[in-house]
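We treat protein structure as text, and this decision shapes the records that our systems exchange. Such a record has a labelled line for the sequence and another for the backbone structure tokens. The record that follows is passed on verbatim for readers who wish to inspect the format:
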Amino acid sequence: VHFPDTERAEWLNKTVKQMWPFICQFIEKLFRETIEPAVRGANNHLSTFSFTKIDIGHQPLRINGVKVYTENVDKRQIILDLQISFVGNCEIDLEIKRYFCRAGVKSIQIHGTMRVILEPLIGDMPLIGALSLFFLRKPLLEINWTGLTNLLDVPGLNGLSDTIILDIISNYLVLPNRITVPLVSEVQIAQLRFPMPKGVLRIHFIEAQDLEGKDTYLKGIVKGKSDPYGIIRVGNQIFQSKVIKENLNPKWNEVYEALVYEHPGQELEIELFDEDPDKDDFLGSLMIDLIEVEKERLLDEWFTLDEVSRGKLHLKLEWLTLMPTAENLDKVLTSIRADRDHANDGLSSALLILYLDSARNLPSGKKMNSNPNPLVLLSVGHKAQESKIRYKTNEPVWEENFTFFVHNPKRQDLEVEVRDEQHQCSLGNFKLPLSQLLESEDLTMHQRFHLSNSGPNSTINMKIALRVLSLEKQARSPDHQHSAQVKRPSLSKDARKSSFKPQVPVSPPSDSNKPVPASPVTDSDKKTDTAEKSQPPNASPQWPTDLSRSSSSLHASNFSYSPSHLSVKEPTPSIASDISLPIATQELRQRLRQLENGTTLGQSPLGQIQLTIRHSSQRNKLIVVVHSCRNLIAFSEEGSDPYVRMYLLPDKRRSGRRKTHVSKKTLNPVFDQIFDFSVSLPEVQRRTLDVAVKNSGGFLSKDKGLLGKV
């Protein structure tokens, strides 16, 4: 029995509907009290900016599904993923009086997966100390503007466009940006506001082989090469490799380091493109679940690319753990060759995590007794980051997080400078050699640092932690071989051809309680690609393991072939009555007899069909890929002319019937055809997919008949 891990939550939608007017009041306050002053202060052209009308509309936000994580989570937290969609008929009008400019928003759509983390759980009411909200990856955002052109003519905004604005908004919703709502005042919000990454993923983007040639010459007569490059995504971190000209087997040999805040659920996404003057062509993609990489620590292998006919990609992935002690720092430094000459480049040996809290008693900048607009510039080596600007204050509170990759903490410094954005002058600075952190307890300092070149008692409050990146290899038995779980949108063609599992042996009914012998793996089975190998190490030999999380290797059968089974399920002998040809009847009877005696170990008596079945909740469709059949019954001396017919029961109307093409004179037909049925996820769980393999026979011929069902 398969329970989907995403559940519907209609009760939640009813609750949200009831709360919607109050949620709207909160959003209105947010616009008026937070967004409006921030926009006014951001640029002096916008000092007359105001919202004239804010109406979020009466259509509440919908939650289409909820998933609660129960594995791989801390005992003191609850992680929920909410699939939300908001299609709002809002009216938000704004004006900038100084430029007589009016604009607004007519409707907003947001679709995406929002993660809600309830943590820490505490032994006191209200049990939940705080909750954090964010999107795991950029949500789909659509805003229908009115008067956008007037708005973009205002000085200071003329560099923007609607797509840039959407990008800025959606990046604000994605990790590491998160909204934290404290529910208990005493909670150490500091630890919530100081999120430690779960780990660092080091991606060695090495090479690819046998990519598709996309560039053509002489109007397509001459096949050319491609100019491949890769785009690598983890969360909202995006890396792009260099382009290698005219090469179908490019070698990039590049290394990227990405922070992983959240797995379960985060993936490494890679897409390859062919650079073209007009539009870059797609050369394949790959998604790797980071849980697998974390288990393995180190993966170095070739992955077959998805969504294209050919091509492989060689990656080496390292999962680096954040260690709060410096004991194996020297080992790490040697392994990344942190030589003396270039102290700022190269691979990272440590991660610097910094929480910028606030500053006090800042000097007043150039003009006496006017308050500055302070921002903080932080840098380690060549990498610099800056905080947001706080307006008109000498006691700014930032509450922002920053992370830096550090090549060699023994020789690098953190430089901090507070600047006044208004007069472009420095309000104070200080330098912290990272070697000081190596001496502190837990490699962490949390204190007020005195600023030099500043006021007499100007301080800045920060929490700084250093974490050594270590590749801990887990102890494994030497014979244990494992490969990353590749999420496949659909099976690649080579995988389809080779991914019939070695047959599952069936125990004869007499001793059905004995353990099933493991099936012999033939040589041909070893040569299959990654999809084949991606079985979890504890997979029982009883049933083909989950290939790309779909039931691609459905045996057209039910676990064991005991005679009692046959009578309950599909009364197989009835198939015999369907068949008019003596040769087929004979073969069928023989197979059924073998079946009852339990002699054909490891043979599905009527053959097998290979399907991939998945449900796309975005398109509300059940998608069935009919790959192929094998070992079908011969209808005549020349074999059979099989085709596959499907219904999604209880619907047996003509319109609900799906048929593949007919494969002539073969017992091992390959169809590779995709069909879909329009049906929602809750509905699909009450339906049955009826698949029949039939013999076509000619027009008016007697050879029509059923070859098998599942």
